[in-house]
Amino acid sequence: MASNQANTSISLNEQSSFSASGEQVPAALSMMVDSMKSMVERAKIDLENADQRARADLENIDQRARKDVALLDQRAREDFQKVDKKARKDVAILDKRAREDHELLRKVRKSKGLTS
Fold it and tell me: Polar residues bias located where (predicted)?
């Protein structure tokens, strides 16, 4: 025989809902699931925002690093050109002195009657 009596475990202030399987779910559990769903959605949005900020920060850092590398490269080229110019001057001076020394040595040998 079917009973038409009310379920006394549910108070008038408590709402019930039904799950996908048709089982009765207490309102508190339903509210907890909704709250957790909301927190997960907010966490997902926060994560996406953090990811966007991180990408923007990384792009800024990359741009600054590229500028720094370009500046260092320019300075290195300038320094290399200065060193190269100085080295060429030094080689020219040494070459001139070597030629003068060679000419002097040739004259000394010639005056002493020595042949090379």
Answer: 1-22
- CA distances 34 to 5, 16, 19, 28, Å, are 31, 14, 13, 10
pLDDT in tens, 18-62: 556 666 668 888 899 999 999 999 999 999 999 999 999 999 999
Strands 24-26 and 16-18: antiparallel
Assess contact for 115 and 109: CB atoms under 8 A.
Answer: yes
Burial of 93 (0-12, 13-18, 19+ CB in 10 A): exposed
pTM for the whole structure: 0.49
* Residue indicated by tokens 């009973």: 3
The span from the CA of 58 to the CA of 64, in Å, is: 10
Evaluate whether 24 touches 16 at the Cβ level (below 8 Å): yes
List strand residue ranges (DSSP E) for the chain, in order: 16-18, 24-26
